[in-house]
């Protein structure tokens, strides 16, 4: 039953193809007919126009028209050419062949070509003849320059498709050849497509029952339908492979989830540890004060002062965690603005003077009109975090920031210090959260372990990048990029030392 349907499908393709191609051939024949008809019409019009011009010329030369009309009658004796000369009052003066009837009195009964000739001097029309109602004639009318006579001419206007084609015998050969080629092309095309459908149907039956595929992808032809069939085969094979590998992919997914949960637990543990220390110290001081009612006031004030310092450290830690959370989860909501980076550094230079324990000289080398697209407050925190990091851990005498290079898209800056740097094995971890090179020293300095992670997250949130390395001459060097505003141009740099 399936084979029968496929056979019918082949013939269903064959007949429409033959019909379409035959229609194209018929269109070509019709075009030939229209071309031949147009050619013959032009030839007839030239012939009638030539007759009218000769008669008008003879009239204007005041030549007797009777001999000339006799000559035309003999010349066109077998061509069915009719010529009639009327005066402007409608009187028939001369004619050859059958007189062409004209009504020159009633405007509504005048022929089309006569009305055109009265307006423009010449007119043509195609209509049935008065003498032969079954024949179509081509009529023309020409008015003399003085408007006293009108020359009317008519000639049979019939051309069949057969006559148009018969005028060029080679057309029959072309038509016959096209018909033969059409049938051959339609037959082989339908046979080719029918074979593709048969193979595709066989594949579909095997695939729907999850049966082994007996058809090789190479059996399909190298055409669009064959490519579709190969793609279906490929998809089926992928489905089988996906089923076989589903357990393995599930295991990989579970491992990824477990790894993510482990990272989350590690972060939670680090956070608990960081919070537990200041809270435990604050609790110890307060419990000591509450348990000893006879404690001297100086000791109480000392304990409260130390507790307050840890409250401040706890506040900084919570603020840093809040900033990281905002950068991680709401980076698309951070508003950006046009920030003059030189003015921002200038403002920070004044703030640096108020940082306790700062013994480093701060230098900057930024163009006066260096503009970046950034959030002013976040960018301010980035620079201050780098400054505090250098003050707390560099043990150097100088720190600074300068512009390295500018492109239409980014400005590249470098922040440096001339301190002791860090061991190379710690460089890859400097941006890790809660990472400390020297835990005791870092806690004593008041660090939360989140300053540099905030710096990196802020830079990447703005679309830039940041790297860190040890300087050959000593100290750390942070290089980062920020998107610039293309409409601003840089002015000469101004180096300021404080």
What's the structural blueprint in terms of helices and strands?
Layout: H1 2-60, H2 65-75, E1 82-87, E2 92-96, H3 112-120, E3 122-128, E4 136-143, E5 149-156, H4 161-166, H5 170-208, H6 224-291, H7 297-329, E6 337-340, H8 341-352, E7 361-367, E8 371-374, H9 376-393, E9 398-406, E10 410-417, H10 439-445, H11 451-461, E11 466-470, E12 476-483, E13 493-497
Parallel strand pairs: 7-9
Antiparallel strand pairs: 1-2, 1-5, 3-4, 4-5, 6-8, 7-13, 9-10, 10-12, 11-12
Helix pairs in contact: 1-2, 1-5, 5-6, 6-7, 7-11, 8-9, 9-11
Write up this protein:
The structure is a single chain. With 498 residues, the chain is α+β, with helices and mostly antiparallel strands. Among the domains are: 2-166, PAS domain (Beta-Lactamase); 335-497, Histidine kinase-like ATPase, C-terminal domain (Heat Shock Protein 90), CATH 3.30.565.10. It is built from eleven helices and 13 strands. The chain has helices at 2-60, 65-75, 112-120, 161-166, 170-208, 224-291, 297-329, 341-352, 376-393, 439-445, 451-461, and strands at 82-87, 92-96, 122-128, 136-143, 149-156, 337-340, 361-367, 371-374, 398-406, 410-417, 466-470, 476-483, 493-497. Strand 9 and strand 10 form a beta hairpin. Helix 1 packs antiparallel against helix 2, helix 1 (2-60) runs antiparallel to helix 5 and helix 8 packs across helix 9 (376-393). It is elongated, with a radius of gyration of 51 Å. The model is unreliable at 1-6 and 487-498 (pLDDT under 50).
